[in-house]
């Protein structure tokens, strides 16, 4: 994760955006504040750049307590067949990794999610090394349970999700069958 940007009042040490929004402010008429779309896209680009320039030493983190971690997901493009990488927030659910297909809470679906649906066998880079995984969308009870866990991490989750016209997929990344312990980094 990038170091905290103390000069930006809306970025916390955890890397999540905050404008002092409290739960009482989440009436149907009030949505939680997000920075402008251009800033979100700039921050994504800067985060990937720091990761690349540091040779992967900076930019990833483990989830701790009620803070999500950062992983690098590499998919295969559904149209080009080329590798595409993106840095995502995640938490651990046993040996599974859980993320949200939310595209910065904007429309449309993120490209990495569309790529993962077309080619579910992907690789994630974690602080302790790469891990081959297979991704899928959580359904029914699993989705409800994992969404509730995300809500513990991000109190504004439901307000952010309300900005989107479609339901936000909860993405589960499961270690691929036959993957050795050494290649999973454990």
Automatic annotation (TrEMBL):
GO terms for cellular component: plasma membrane. InterPro entries: F420H2_quin_Rdtase (IPR004378), Split_barrel_FMN-bd (IPR012349). Pfam families: F420H2_quin_red. It catalyses: oxidized coenzyme F420-(gamma-L-Glu)(n) + a quinol + H(+) = reduced coenzyme F420-(gamma-L-Glu)(n) + a quinone. Coiled coil: none annotated. GO terms for molecular function: coenzyme F420 binding; oxidoreductase activity. Belongs to the F420H(2)-dependent quinone reductase family. This is Deazaflavin-dependent oxidoreductase, nitroreductase family.
């Amino acid at each position: 994760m990038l170091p905290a940007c103390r000069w930006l009042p809306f970025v916390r040490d955890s890397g999540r955006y905050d404008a002092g929004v409290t739960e009482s402010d989440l009436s149907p008429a009030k949505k939680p504040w997000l920075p402008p779309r251009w800033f979100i896209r700039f921050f994504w680009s800067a985060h990937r750049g720091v990761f690349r320039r540091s040779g992967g030493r900076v930019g990833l983190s483990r989830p701790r307590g009620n803070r999500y971690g950062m992983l690098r997901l590499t998919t295969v493009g559904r149209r080009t067949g080329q590798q595409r990488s993106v840095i995502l927030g995640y938490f651990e659910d046993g040996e599974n990794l859980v993320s949200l297909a939310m595209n910065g809470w904007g429309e449309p679906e993120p490209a990495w999610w569309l790529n993962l649906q077309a080619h579910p066998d992907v690789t994630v880079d974690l602080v302790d090394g790469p891990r081959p995984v297979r991704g899928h969308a959580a359904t029914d009870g699993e989705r409800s349970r994992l969404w509730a866990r995300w809500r513990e991490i991000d109190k504004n989750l439901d307000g952010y999700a309300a900005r989107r016209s479609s339901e936000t997929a909860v993405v589960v990344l499961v270690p691929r069958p036959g993957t050795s312990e050494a290649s999973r980094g454990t």
